Amino acid sequence: MNFINKFDIYFILVLICSICIILFIISGLSISYQESILYFSNDNITSKLSRFFTSIFGANDYTFRISNVIIFALNLILIYLISKKVLKHQKDAILCTIIYALIPGVIMQGTLLNQSSIILFVVLLVCYIEIAYDKIPYFILAVSIFLGPSIVMLFVALFFYALSMKKKYMAIFAIVCFTINTYIFGIDVSGRPSGKFLDVVGALALLYSPPLFVYYIYTLYRNITKEKKNLLLYVSVCSLVVSMLLSIRQNVDKEIFLFMSLCGIPLMIKQFLSDIRVRLPIFQNSYKNRFLIVVTFLIIEAAMLIFSKYLYTIIENPAFLDSFYIAKELSLQLKERNISRVTINDKSMKKRLEFYGIGDGGQILRKVNKNGNIIIQYNGKIVARYAI
After folding, report:
1. φ, ψ at 341 (rounded to 5°)
2. Model confidence over 30-81: pLDDT tens digits?
3. Residue 191 pLDDT more than 60?
4. Is the separation of the CB atoms in 232 and 239 below 8 Å?
5. Which end of the chain is more exposed for a tag (fewer CB within 10 A), N or C?
6. Domain map of the chain by residue range?
C-alpha cells in the first residue's frame, strides 16, 4: 500500500517553496512596532513561543518569527488535507493549496508575528476532524477556550452549525464555551458608534485581493443556501458576517474576525471547479477567464509582498513600508559605532531598537532629511538618515 503518491510529493514541493518564500521575506524585514509590543508586553501563547525560541537561539528576525513559520507550514498542511476531503481530485487539492499560499493575508500571517496563525490552526484542525471523521473534537474546543478572545468566533460558528444539524447538546456546549471565553477575556463592544464598514471591507479586499474576495463572498452565499453544510462553512460565513455587522458601529479586531475566514478557501475552489465542469467546453471560457483574473491579481499582490523591500527603489519615500524596515539596519550601524543606548523621541523606533539590543538613554538619535552621520541604503538608494 502506498502511503504517499505523486500529488503528495507535489504538495511537499509547494510547502517547501512556500516556506522558502516566507524565509526570504523575513530576511529583509525588521521587527515592527506592533510585533515588538506583542513580543515584550503581551503574555499570550504567541509571545511565549517567540520568547522561547529567542531565549534558546538568540534574538534575531528568524528565531523571533520561527514559531510563525512552523504554524504557517502546519496550516498549509491542514488546508491540503481538508482539500483532499472536500474536492473531487487530488490535483484540485494542489491547486487549492497554491491559491491559499498566494493569498496576501496568508503571506502576512507567515511573516509577521501574530496570534491569528495559532487561532487559524485550531480552527482548521477542528474543521478537518469534523470533515474527515464526522466528529466534533470537544476536548480541543474546550482547551482552545483559554487561547484568547480571538477564538470566540469558532464557538459562534459551532452554535449555528449545531442549530442547523438540530444537535441540542452541541449547541449548549458552544454556548458554554462562548460564555467562559468572553468571561475570561471579554469582547469590546463599547465606545461611541462609528461606521467602520468600508474600512473592514477594504481590509478584507486587501487580505484576499479584490477579485478573490468578491468571488469568495459569492461562493459562501452559494454554499450556505445548499442543504449539505459543514463546520468549515459556518466558521467562514460567521467570521465575515459578524465582522461586517459589527463594523457598522465600531472598529473590528482583525485577528478575531478577518483572518479566521481564510479557512473557507477549499469551498471556494470547489465551487469554481464545479461551475466549470458542469458546463460544456464551449461555455467554460468565461469562467476560466474569471479564474485567470483572480490568479493574476494574486500573483501581482504576492510579488509585491515578497519583493516589498525593492519598492523603495521605485516609490519615492514609501512611508507605509518604514514600519517593517530600517530598524535592523539602524541597530547594526549603531553597534558598529559601539553605541548600545540612545535617546530617541520616536517611541515606536525606540521599542523596535530594544529588540536588537539598543537600550534607552545615552546619546540623542534623531531622524533628519539631509546630511546625518547614519545613512540607511537599500539597493544603493538612501531610504533614511539619522544624526547622532
Report:
1. -140, 135
2. 999 999 998 987 778 888 999 999 999 988 999 999 999 999 999 999 999 9
3. no
4. no
5. N
6. 6-306, 319-387
